[in-house]
Design a protein that fits this description.
Length: about 400
C-alpha cells in the first residue's frame, strides 16, 4: 500500500548495490512486497566510469544468481575461471588449481560490476512488488514490537516487518541500531584497471604475492583482464598521478610478459582496503548483509560471494516464514540467520587477513616456509580439492539456492 508520504511493505532494504538489490530480487520473486532505498542516482551508477571493479562469482554464487533469475542476463558477459595460479614473488614453487580436477564446470566466473549492476536494474524493473527508491536517503529507523519504520530525508516513510542493512561497510542503518564493529584499515590500497593483451588469458586467474601485497590478474571477456593491485598506501598517490606510459611501466614490472604486449584501456581507480566485522548481524527488526556485516581483504576475491551467501540464507529463512503466515521480523528468525552466517564470515576474515600478513613481506625465512607450503598443497590432490570446493562455495551447511534448488 502506498500514499504520497507513506509506503507499507513486507521488507525495506537500505542499500541498492550488488548485494542489496540481489536480495530484493530474491524476495520479490517469492511474492513479498519489497522497498529498496539507495542514496546513489541510478543514472550515475550506470556510467562506465562509476566503478571499474569486477566480482569473482563462485560456482555456488552462480547457482544463487540463477535461482533469482539473474544469471541468464549475466552469462554472456561472464568469463569462466578454468584455472587459478597462486605464486609468491619470483619463486619457482606455486599452487595450481585446475577445474578438471573437480568436475566439468568452471571454478567460477569474473563479471564486471557495471554489467552486474545493469542486469540488476533491468531485472528489478520487471517486478511490480519491488519499489526502488533512488536517489533517496535514510533519516532514521525506528523498530517497534510488530514493525519498523524507516524515515527518508525527503519526508516519506516506509513501514515494514523487517529492515535489512545492505548499505556498505559504513552502514548508517547499522550505526542507528548501535551495532559496533571490529576492524582496521590496512596500510595498503587497491588499484584497479583493465588491460588488453596480445596473448589469450586462457581463463586463468593469477594471484601473485608481492612484498607490498597481492597482485591479481583476473580474466574477463574480449581478451582482457582486470588488474587488482594491492600497494602500500604511501605509494598509491604517486602511482595514480603517473602518465600512461609511466604507469604501464610500473604495471609491467609486476605483471611480467606472459600475456605479451599489454595496454591499459580503462581509467584507474584506487580505494582503501579495510577489514570490518559487525559485533552482531541482527538487532530488533534489523538484519545486516554484505559489507554492512563484514568487509574483508580482497586478496581471495570472496567479498561478493560472502554477501551472496548472506542473502541466500536470509532469503530462505524469510520466505519459509512468510509461507507459514508468521512474523518475518521475529527475533528467533534473525538469531538463526546470525548463527548460520557468523562462523563462515569469521573464518574467511581470519584466512584472508592471515594470508595477507603471511605473504605481504620479504623476510627470507617466512618466504621459504610459505613457498614450501604452496608446493606441499599443490602435490596433495585431496587437500587441493578441499580448497577448491571452499573457493567454489560448496562446503558447509548450504541453503537451497546454493544447492541449485528454488526458494
Amino acid at each position: 500500500m502506498r500514499t504520497d508520504d507513506q509506503i507499507i511493505a513486507d521488507i525495506v532494504i537500505g542499500g541498492g548495490g550488488l548485494v542489496g538489490l540481489s536480495l530484493g530480487l530474491a524476495l520479490a520473486k517469492s511474492g513479498l512486497e519489497i522497498v529498496v532505498v539507495d542514496n546513489q542516482d541510478p543514472a550515475t551508477m550506470r556510467k562506465e566510469k562509476f566503478d571499474g571493479r569486477v566480482c569473482s562469482i563462485s560456482y555456488g554464487s552462480m547457482r544463487v544468481l540463477d535461482g533469482i533469475g539473474l544469471w541468464d542476463s549475466l552469462q554472456g558477459e561472464a568469463e569462466p575461471i578454468l584455472d587459478i595460479r597462486v605464486s609468491d614473488q619470483n619463486s619457482s614453487l606455486f599452487l595450481h588449481f585446475d577445474h578438471r580436477e573437480i568436475g566439468d564446470h568452471p571454478l567460477g566466473w569474473i563479471v564486471e560490476n557495471r554489467n552486474t549492476r545493469k542486469a540488476l536494474f533491468e531485472a528489478a524493473s520487471t517486478y511490480s512488488n519491488l519499489l526502488y527508491l533512488a536517489p533517496a536517503s535514510v533519516k532514521s529507523c525506528d523498530p517497534c514490537s510488530w514493525f519498523t519504520e524507516v524515515q527518508l530525508t525527503d519526508g516519506r516513510s516506509v513501514k515494514a516487518s523487517l529492515a535489512i542493512a545492505a548499505d556498505g561497510r559504513n552502514s548508517l542503518l547499522r550505526q542507528m541500531a548501535g551495532i559496533n564493529i571490529t576492524g582496521w584499515q590496512y596500510s595498503q590500497m587497491g588499484i584497479v584497471c583493465t588491460i588488453q593483451h596480445e596473448k589469450p588469458h586462457l581463463g586463468i586467474a593469477h594471484e601473485r604475492f608481492l612484498p607490498a601485497g597481492p597482485f591479481a590478474v583476473l580474466p574477463i571477456n574480449g581478451n582482457r583482464s582486470s588488474i587488482v593491485w594491492t600497494e602500500k598506501t604511501k605509494l598509491v598517490k604517486n602511482l595514480m598521478t603517473l602518465n600512461n606510459g609511466e604507469f604501464l611501466a610500473e604495471l609491467n614490472q609486476r605483471l611480467g610478459n606472459f600475456l605479451g604486449e599489454v595496454n591499459v584501456i580503462s581509467p584507474r581507480w584506487s580505494y582503501p582496503i579495510v577489514l570490518s566485522h559487525a559485533q552482531h548481524y541482527v538487532s530488533k527488526r534489523l538484519a545486516l548483509v554484505g559489507d554492512a556485516a563484514h568487509a574483508i581483504h580482497p586478496l581471495a576475491g570472496q567479498g561478493f560471494n560472502l554477501g551472496i551467501r548472506d542473502i541466500a540464507i536470509l532469503a530462505e529463512l524469510i520466505v519459509d516464514r512468510h509461507r507459514l503466515g508468521m512474523d518475518i521480523g521475529a527475533i528467533d528468525l534473525l538469531s538463526r540467520y546470525e548463527r548460520w552466517r557468523r562462523f563462515d564470515s569469521m573464518s574467511l576474515i581470519a584466512v584472508t587477513d592471515g594470508l595477507n600478513r603471511l605473504f605481504s613481506n620479504n623476510w627470507e625465512p617466512v618466504r621459504l616456509i610459505r613457498d614450501v607450503g604452496l608446493a606441499v598443497v599443490n602435490r596433495n590432490p585431496p587437500l587441493k580439492k578441499l580448497f577448491m570446493r571452499h573457493a567454489m562455495g560448496l562446503v558447509g551447511e548450504l541453503p537451497r539456492l546454493t544447492r541449485g534448488e528454488r526458494l
